[in-house]
Design brief:
This is Secreted protein. With 240 residues, the protein is mainly alpha-helical. The protein contains eleven helices and two strands. Strands 1-2 form a two-stranded antiparallel ribbon. β1 and β2 form a beta hairpin. It is elongated, with a radius of gyration of 23 Å.
Length: 240
């Protein structure tokens, strides 16, 4: 085989490889966005009437705007304070489920702000959270919507309980140590880089149990706790 033929074959093989890589990059765009956002991808597609391309454009725009948001580390005393506040919310659910859900809504908003997520309005905060917590952000949407319905007397105790369970999933993610927290511990100061390279992966390490309840503290144990408090609340109302 001549040298010229060998060179021609090498060039042709390189061209084919480059074409394959280019096509795989283009065709791989959709699965990567879908994998990146998980349930948030499906929700956005449904919101766009099944138009996946429109949904992907929206999600890519969120990544562009909020992908580099740095999650501000929580000091130990801050984490303890938020833990005490969440415990108070769950205790309050026993006698005042409507007020408890409203407080959970406000607590998540304060916590997201403390973590450094922009808050130019509810929609912007949800969009920013969806980039870094795509599998938990629905908890904020639900608790916010149910809090509004409850004020109008349109949410029963079971729906309030479910909203609180879903809200706890996001609460736990926001209070769990993040990449920025660990970086701050190593350096003794604020983290220098964007959280998880700007793509917040930690949130995807745990899946929701059942229809959205977390499998950790907010999973079976959390559901049992809120189910018991809901039952006690109903029993209290019947005996009154």
């Amino acid at each position: 085989m001549s040298t010229g033929l060998i060179i021609t074959l090498i060039v042709a093989a390189a061209a084919v490889l480059a074409l394959v890589l280019l096509l795989s990059g283009r065709l791989g765009g959709r699965p990567s966005v879908k994998r990146r956002f998980g349930p948030e991808y499906e929700r956005t597609v449904a919101q766009h009437g099944g138009d996946a391309k429109a949904a992907e454009r929206e999600l890519r725009e969120r990544l562009r705007r909020y992908g580099d948001v740095r999650q501000r580390p929580l000091a130990p005393e801050e984490r303890e304070r938020y833990s005490a506040q969440w415990a108070a919310v769950q205790e309050r659910f026993v006698d005042s489920p409507v007020e408890a859900v409203a407080e959970a809504d406000r607590l998540l908003d304060r916590l997201a702000e403390a973590r450094g997520f922009p808050g130019g309005g509810f929609d912007e905060r949800v969009s920013a959270l969806s980039v870094h917590h795509p599998r938990r952000v629905q908890g904020l949407r639900e608790v916010h919507a149910v809090a509004v319905l409850a004020r109008e007397g349109q949410a029963d105790t079971e729906r309030l309980r479910e909203a609180l369970v879903h809200a706890r999933a996001l609460y736990e993610d926001l209070t769990a140590p993040s990449a920025d927290d660990r970086a701050a511990e190593r350096t003794g100061g604020p983290a220098d880089g964007p959280r998880d390279g700007g793509h917040g992966v930690r949130d995807g390490d745990r899946d929701l149990g059942g229809h959205g309840g977390p499998q950790h503290r907010g999973g079976p144990a959390g559901k049992l706790h809120t189910a018991r408090t809901a039952h006690r609340h109903d029993a209290h109302r019947r005996s009154a």
